[in-house]
């Protein structure tokens, strides 16, 4: 009550306000008391005695901090095995940060890379499961770099496959992460490695450069080098005459894992691009990025092994149809693929897939498609829905093969060394759960 003859009494201190509010809650005015208490806290007046404001803030932030996982690698001649490793790593957390090893570190630890860092960065950025990329990552997880991962990048776990990663001195590259209790392991994708792919190319080159008399002898020699202990067979009617057959065993589940799982909307502008996409590289990624920017949904046609061989020679493709399809499916710019797309784009195909625009890049293994006879794009050209895109990078599958040929001896030595470690892995491996 105020004094009729004087000034009103001063307001009680904030602590008394809080006491009264809590008393209100206890007396039965729960809704009013809690509301007032929250209002007092959120306005900045003192502490939060019931902890309600902090819980509200956590809810506003989405509940919990996202789990961030880290995986590194050379990602040289990136293939579907790399992509599957990144997919598995991403499944262990909410955000995937990927370290791409520098050219100098690869040279020091393994030998020369086929693709430089700039191209490898493009490839890793394009993988749909990758959230962030660190360039020039070290080959080995040092204590300083591990601390940087934990403190600066807020990494919770470091991920690697079940195959060992051994430094030149024989030590485990992930020993420190394991010791810190921040290491998790995923299952290696069977049937492919960069060593294997380089071996396929070396085999093609060797076979094409020797006479038939010595062909079988040279084939046996290279076969032993790159077989990883598996028995080898020759592909009599497939992609690369005389090259080793891929050990990849495609399953429907793997295709589903790589697929986006949804089709275009009813009014989507669907862009179509087709090709071999052999040895999936940065040139492929960049033209797919441009194509996707022209519409709402990118449909990619992957030609059969027989179609590629007919147009580019019996030694192509290096990768088989299923391998090439998975590499393209892993690209974030791609919404769907046609596995075994026809060479010619027909009116029925355009209608079936509701294609709005057919595109083709300026950089290609063969750009004589606009000849008078047998133009595969004759129908979309006639319909006025065909466009040639300026390719951002002057890279083709032949470019990659020429790099191998130009540095043949260095890559041969690198593969001999790596193939031995892979042979030991296959001989001693056991079943690892996961996919």
TrEMBL record:
Pfam families registered for this protein in UniProt: CTP_transf_like (PF01467)
Protein name: Ethanolamine-phosphate cytidylyltransferase
Pathway in which this enzyme or protein is active: Lipid metabolism; Phospholipid metabolism; phosphatidylethanolamine biosynthesis; phosphatidylethanolamine from ethanolamine: step 2/3
Listed CDD domains: CCT, ECT
Compositionally biased spans, kind Polar residues: 218-229
Catalytic activity: phosphoethanolamine + CTP + H(+) = CDP-ethanolamine + diphosphate
Keyword flag Chloroplast: no
EC number of this enzyme: 2.7.7.14
Domain Cytidyltransferase-like: 70-199, 273-371
Top-level EC class as recorded in UniProt: transferase
Gene Ontology annotations of biological process type: phosphatidylethanolamine biosynthetic process
InterPro entries membership: CCT, Cyt_trans-like, Ect1/PCYT2, Rossmann-like_a/b/a_fold
Family the entry assigns: Belongs to the cytidylyltransferase family.
Gene, per the UniProt record: LOC116192031
Ranges that cross the membrane: 20-42
PANTHER family named among the record's database cross-references: ETHANOLAMINE-PHOSPHATE CYTIDYLYLTRANSFERASE (PTHR45780)
Signal peptide (UniProt feature, chain positions): none
One GO cellular component term noted in the UniProt record for this chain: cytoplasm
Molecular function via GO: ethanolamine-phosphate cytidylyltransferase activity
Disordered: annotated span: 214-239
Coiled-coil zones: none
Keyword 4Fe-4S among record annotations: no
Organism: Punica granatum (Pomegranate)
Alphabetical UniProt keywords: Lipid biosynthesis, Lipid metabolism, Membrane, Nucleotidyltransferase, Phospholipid biosynthesis, Phospholipid metabolism, Transferase, Transmembrane, Transmembrane helix
């Amino acid at each position: 009550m105020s004094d009729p003859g004087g000034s009103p009494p001063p307001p009680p201190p904030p602590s008394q306000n809080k006491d009264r509010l809590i008393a209100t809650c206890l007396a039965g005015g729960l809704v009013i008391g809690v509301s007032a208490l929250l209002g007092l806290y959120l306005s900045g007046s003192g502490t939060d005695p019931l902890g309600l404001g902090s819980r509200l803030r956590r809810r506003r932030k989405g509940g919990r901090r996202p789990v961030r996982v880290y995986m590194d690698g050379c990602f040289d001649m990136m293939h579907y095995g790399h992509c599957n490793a990144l997919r598995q790593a991403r499944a262990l957390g909410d955000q995937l940060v990927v370290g791409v090893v520098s050219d100098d570190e690869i040279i020091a630890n393994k030998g020369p890379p086929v693709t430089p860092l700039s191209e490898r960065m493009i490839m890793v950025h394009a993988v749909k499961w990758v959230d962030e990329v660190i360039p020039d990552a070290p080959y080995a997880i040092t204590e300083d770099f591990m601390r940087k991962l934990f403190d600066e990048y807020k990494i919770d776990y470091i991920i690697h496959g079940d195959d060992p990663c051994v430094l030149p001195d024989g030590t485990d590259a992930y020993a420190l992460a394991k010791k810190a209790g921040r290491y998790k392991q995923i299952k290696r994708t069977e049937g492919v490695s960069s060593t294997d792919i380089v071996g396929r190319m070396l085999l093609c080159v060797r076979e094409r450069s020797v006479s038939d008399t010595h062909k079988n002898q040279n084939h046996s020699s290279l076969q032993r080098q790159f077989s990883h202990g598996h028995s080898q067979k020759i592909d009599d009617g497939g992609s690369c005459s005389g090259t080793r057959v891929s050990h990849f065993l495609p399953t429907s589940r793997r295709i589903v894992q790589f697929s986006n799982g949804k089709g275009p909307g009813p009014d989507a502008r669907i862009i179509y691009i087709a090709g071999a996409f052999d040895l999936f590289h940065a040139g492929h990624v960049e033209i797919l990025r441009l194509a996707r920017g022209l519409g709402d949904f990118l449909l990619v046609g992957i030609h059969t092994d027989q179609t590629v061989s007919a147009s580019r020679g019996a030694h192509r493709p290096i990768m088989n149809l299923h391998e090439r399809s998975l590499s393209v499916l892993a690209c974030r710019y791609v919404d769907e693929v046609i596995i075994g797309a026809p060479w010619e784009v027909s009116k029925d195909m355009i209608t079936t897939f509701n294609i709005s625009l057919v595109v083709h890049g300026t950089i290609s293994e063969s750009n004589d498609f606009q000849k008078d006879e047998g133009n595969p794009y004759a129908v979309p050209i006639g319909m006025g829905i065909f466009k040639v895109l300026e390719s951002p990078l002057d890279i083709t599958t032949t470019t990659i093969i020429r790099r191998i040929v130009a540095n043949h001896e260095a890559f041969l030595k690198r593969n001999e060394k790596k193939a031995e470690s892979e042979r030991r892995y296959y001989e001693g491996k056991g079943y690892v759960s996961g996919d």
